[in-house]
Every structure is written in C-alpha cells, then in structure tokens.
Amino acid sequence: xxxxxxxxxxxxxxxxxxxxxxxxxxxxxxxxxxxxxxxxxxxxxxxxxxxxxxxxxxxxxxx
Length: 63
Fold this sequence. Notes:
Layout: H1 2-15, E1 26-28, E2 35-37, H2 54-59
Antiparallel strand pairs: 1-2
C-alpha cells in the first residue's frame, strides 16, 4: 500500500502537482495559439487536454 501511494505521489508531481506555477508543464492551445499551464482539474487527463478554455474548445481549431 505504501509503495502504491509513493508511486501516485511521484506521478502527480511529474504532471505539475506540487510544483510552483512557473515550473508546471504547459501546452499551446490549438484554437487560439496561446500557452496555458497545467491545472489541478486536468490532473487525470493532461495528455488529452488541447484547449485552454471552454470557449476555445467550443470554437474548435481555426483554419
């Protein structure tokens, strides 16, 4: 049990949890092109996050 908890903590830390905001992972929004950084609400599926906001997600990708 303790080993699993340690693994969970390490995985969370690598995603951005427990880091200063300036040290967190960031991405570029595919709709507006602006950079955005890791947020707690995206913790479970950060690798699938493509948009910085609901507004950009609803607008979709610009051509």
